[in-house]
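Pilot study result, target chain (84 residues):
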Amino acid sequence: MKIEKDAEQLYSQMITLLLSWQIARYTGKNQAGAVKKTARKLLNETKDAQTYETFKKIARCQSDFKVIETMQKCFDENKRLGYL
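Predicted structure:
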């Protein structure tokens, strides 16, 4: 049961990042800034060390292009898997 709970939390956090990216894109706001801000907020909710490090890398990334590229790859892979 613990694995399912962790998977649900990770999926929820990933969707939150994707939503912040898409909302910023749609409204014409800074997409990378929105994703980084969301990643910083998710750091406080994350208990898994690997997920924490991933969000930390996103939140502190110097390249806005890399942040957007990561979100695009995440979106494409989830779409390919049928999650979205």
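One observation from the pilot: The mean pLDDT is 89. A full batch analysis is planned for the follow-on phase.
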